[in-house]
Amino acid sequence: MNDEWSRCPICFEDYSLIHRPTTFVCGHSTCIDHTIGSKRLQHCPICRHPLKKEDQYHVSYNLEEASRLFQLIKNTIDWSTVKCSPVPVISHEENNASAMIKRDEIYAHQVQAELNREIVNESSRRVRVPTRNQALPIEEIRANLTALQINQVTGHQKGCGHRCDLVSTRQCCVCSDRRPHHQDNTYPAYVDGRGIVNRVTRNEYYCTTCKIR
User: Where is the RING-type domain (predicted)?
Assistant: First the structure.
């Protein structure tokens, strides 16, 4: 492709925003920088058409834009100097859709077979531990729960040596209570209309830990 129209015939630079083109009356073009200054052109470098000093030359925007687009296309398609990797040659069989699907199916079967072998090998390496019958007797379950409740430590250790759920007291609920002790968890108390009775619950407001002592 002839690309002489896209570059200056004097400096051989491609027309761009730096080397801006201008077109003479004869139809030929150069960089506009060659039409000003002490080295101003007197004739067209192509056809030797005389150029008058009083003529004013302007940028040929159409030629500038066309040259830029041409350079862009040239550098991105067939004129690019970047070496691309060669396109792999695909045979007719590989290009066939059914052949490609069949090849993928074969590969999938191979992967599945390999996975199955790994699963079998992993299962054979595992040590079989005898499992206990999950249906435990009710009595054994109750015994385990009772032992768990007995061994379970609750409350906070107090100065009296007992444990209590309260935090702010130095002693447990029982030791902090100064009321007299009677049988059946009662103590003598005054009841309106009845006087002193001995059937008042003593640990009614004790914490949970002190109640089960």
Answer: 8-48
pLDDT for 164 beyond 90: yes
The count of domains in the chain is: 2
The pLDDT assigned to 86 comes to 60
- Which residues form the domain of 14? 4-76
Average pLDDT over the chain reads: 79
- Residue 32 one-letter amino acid: I
Please list the alpha-helical segments (H only) found in 15-137. Answer: 61-76, 92-95, 97-125
Q: What share of the chain is helix, strand, coil (3-state, %, to 5)?
A: 40, 15, 50
Q: For residue 156, what are the β-bridge partners?
A: 164
- What count of other Cβ atoms lies within 10 Å of the Cβ of residue 68? 15
User: Which of these, 29, 12, 24, lies nearest to 64 by C-alpha position?
Assistant: 29
Distance linking the first and last C-alpha atoms of the chain: 107
Domain assignment present for residue 16? The answer is yes
pLDDT classification of 78: cutoffs 50, 70, 90: low
Q: Which amino acid is at 122?
A: E
Alpha-carbon torsion (124, 130, 136, 140), positive or negative: negative
Distance CA 72, CA 80 (A): 10
How remote is the C-alpha of 39 from its chain's centroid?
A: 64
Predicted confidence at residue 30, as pLDDT, reads 93
